[in-house]
Amino acid sequence: VFPSLAQAQASVANEVYQELGQPSVFLFCPTEYCSSLCSPSPSQSCYLLTLGQELLPGIGVIWTGPKVVSQELSATLLEEVEGVLQRRPIIWDNLYANDYDCRRVFLGPYTGRAPGLMPRLHGLLLNPNCELQANFIPIHTLGSWFRRELGSCAHADHTGTETAAALGDSRGPQEGSYSPQEALELALHDWVAEINQQASKPGR
Q1: Is 159 inside any structural domain?
Q2: Which tens digit of pLDDT belongs to each residue from 118-134?
Q3: Are residues 171 and 188 in contact, defined by beta-carbon separation less than 8 angstroms?
Q4: What CATH number is attached to the domain comprising 89?
């Protein structure tokens, strides 16, 4: 019925999106969801070019970065993806995902994400460790990164000032660029306090 996989997927996604009344959040994960899956590159992928042209503007498109598990994300890559998809991508960040190797748990700080990414993003989702309690540091340091990014955006665009001010009371360094080491130390401090609080409860 369809001349290509991309046109088939876009047609189905558009129909579902419209049938649901065009919700404010509607996410589409493409078959080529990172650079390493694109042929020959994101900007020259016929599949992604078709999706960019055919998907309705309100549909968000998920992207994981250069690879399925990306050690780094750059503004340059996101600009390339935005150009081909005709919309800012939603990053599905697999930095901490361990479902492919449950012998490993990732406890380091959120890192490898260049400063100034937020203007290039429509959203960011974190795929965490399968073990719930192991995600304190990943989520806490992501929060520190987000506050720094939001603060940078507020300086560049006054529309973010109100939200940035509201987050300014949150614990964490507020000046300068994001430091993974500082974010890690803050997260460890808060995690120890949380562990001690849990341990002091009766019956624990």
Answers
A1: no
A2: 999 999 999 999 999 89
A3: no
A4: 3.20.20.80
Average pLDDT, the chain: 89
Measured between alpha carbons, how far is 79 from 43 in angstroms, rounded to an integer? 10
Cβ-contact 110, 72 below 8 angstroms: no
Of the pLDDT bands very low, low, confident and very high (cuts 50, 70, 90), residue 151 is confident
Q: Is 27 among the domain residues?
A: yes
Cα(42)–Cα(200) distance, integer angstroms: 52
Can you tell me the mean pLDDT for 95-111?
95
Q: Which tokens is 143 given? A: 């929060």
pLDDT, one tens digit per residue, over 40-92 is 999 999 999 999 999 999 999 999 999 999 999 999 999 999 999 999 999 99
> Is the N-terminal amide bond of 40 cis, ω within 30° of 0?
yes
Token readout for 81 is 């993806």
**171 in any annotated domain:** no
Residue-range definition of the domain harbouring residue 135: 5-154+178-200
Q: What does the buried/exposed string (b/e) look like for 117-137 if buried means 16 or more CB atoms within 10 Å of the residue's CB?
A: bbebbbebebbbbeeeeebbb
pTM of the entire predicted model = 0.84
Q: How many domains does the chain have?
A: 1
Q: Is residue 107 in a domain?
A: yes
Alpha helices in the chain (DSSP H): 5-19, 46-54, 75-85, 136-156, 161-167, 180-199
